[in-house]
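For the sake of transparency, this paper describes our internal protein records without simplification. Such a record has a labelled line for the sequence and another for the backbone structure tokens. Nothing more is needed to write down the fold, since each code stands for a local backbone conformation. For reference, a complete record is included directly beneath this paragraph.
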Amino acid sequence: MKLVLNKPTSGYNLAAINENFTRIESEFQNKVLYRDNPVGEPNTLQTDVDANSRDIYNVRDLYILRSFSVNGVDLSTVLAEAAASAAASAASALAASVSAAAADVSEANALIYSNDAANSYALADSISDSLAGGTIGFDAIAYDFGSVADLLEYFNRDFGSIV
């Protein structure tokens, strides 16, 4: 209900004027939302406020105790979904980083194994060439194993034993 004042019926009706001032004071104390409220005085809304399709400007902080909806969409749900999506994105980025590091290690290992394989191939090739020629060296002496008839001819002493 809006403020309704009594109209004095005759020129100077002090009781009606005082009653009107009391009503005005009561309305201001109980039904007005102050821009600059006195300290200690209540300044809270009792009912919803309809901005009538108008904007509200210069809101520094907005504290919301329950849900906050825009065009029927609950923003607390949207914010929770965005936070979950951000967390999943961060986890995916971390997994990609770990995977890239593992790929780098695999590449380095592949290079090492490739070099080891090349060295093994070169050694095997050298041994193969030596065997194809029929000679292999002991104590810098060349032996032809292609025509071994008597083992003592080539192994004429004891080379020791393998323990």
In short: The chain has a mean pLDDT of 79. The chain is about 50% helix and 5% strand. Helices lie at 14-31, 75-133, 151-154. The longest helix spans residues 75-133.
